[in-house]
Structure formats: C-alpha cells, structure tokens
Amino acid sequence: MEPHAELEASAARLGFDLSPHQIDRLLRLAEWLEAEAIPAGGLGPAEGGRILQRHIVDSLAMAVGFDRFPREVADLGCGVGLPGLVLAVAFPESGLTLVDRSSRRVSLARRAIRVLDLPNAEVVQGEVEKPVRRFPGVVARAVMPPERLLDHLHGWIEPGGRAVVAGSSRRTRAVEGYRTLEVGMLDPPTWLLIMAA
To answer: Which of 129, 121, 124, 196 is nearest to 165 (CA)?
Structure first.
C-alpha cells in the first residue's frame, strides 16, 4: 500500500478522519525523521524502514487515551518531537508544548516545527522532574519507567486533566496509579497507561 493510503487507513482505524493536508504533513514529518533526525542521532539507524507505523501511527494512537483531545497538551521527554508533532498536526486547534532536557533534541524538534510550519507547537528545554506549569493533558512516550514517571505527572497535570503514557506492543502489566487501555486497531496492539488527576 502506498504511504498516503496506508496512513489514511491507519488513522481511520484509530477513529481519526485526517484531511489530505494533514496526511501530507505527517508524511513530510516521516520524511524529515528519515532525512534529518536519523542522521543527527535523534532516532536509531534501524528506524528508517518503519517510521510510518512505529513512530507516526504509534504517536497518533496516543490520542485514543483522551475522551476529548485537550486544548493544551505537554509532551514530556519529546526527543525529536514524538508524539507531540504528530498530535499537533492531527489536532490543529490544540496547543502542544514539547519538553526535553537535551539541547540537541530540542534544536531538532524546533527544526521540525519550522519545516512543517506548525503554529500550534513549541519546544522548551526542561526536565520532566521539574514541572514549569500544569496542562489539561500530558503525553509521554519512552521517557522513563511508568512507575517513576507517575511521581512527576502530578506536577504537570491540572485538576481534572489526564496523562497518557505509551505502554508497549506487548500486554502492559498493571501499574499502580494508571489504568490500561488497549489500542487494538494497531498490529500488534498497543497498550496505553492513563492517569487522571
């Protein structure tokens, strides 16, 4: 299947109706990840052949953890911009604040924002352990063990908010403080951990 149709079908399986413009932007992000992020060390060299499903669709799947996507979301430990940039494309009415401690990764994510022309995303250098303010939504993908991350989430989420933490493609064991949600539309299924404030 060609990439545009593959991405459109994957988004539809997740319950998202992305416009052709959004699909094109996500494919541009995939191209950027392969052309710039991998050579710069932002993603591993073996990721080139699986960017679309492993990084773009997997990032989009994190939105399934929200009943309604929040107006503002923090992406903790964003690396080169995942999942935050994908979510910024998919939800243009929401503001995404991407946070990472590495100045190199922050520079890469800022470059991606310019390449994609995303006015609803910003990147700040900071640490997960030192919240700067609270958000109605928080996402985190491959930052630290969920048990350790839980200690820091309360400082980032405003009352009534929700955090969605990436689990894995294997069944995620129960983690105290979270509930699990299977995103079975993906192959293999992905598990999300959800913490409500």
So the answer is: 196
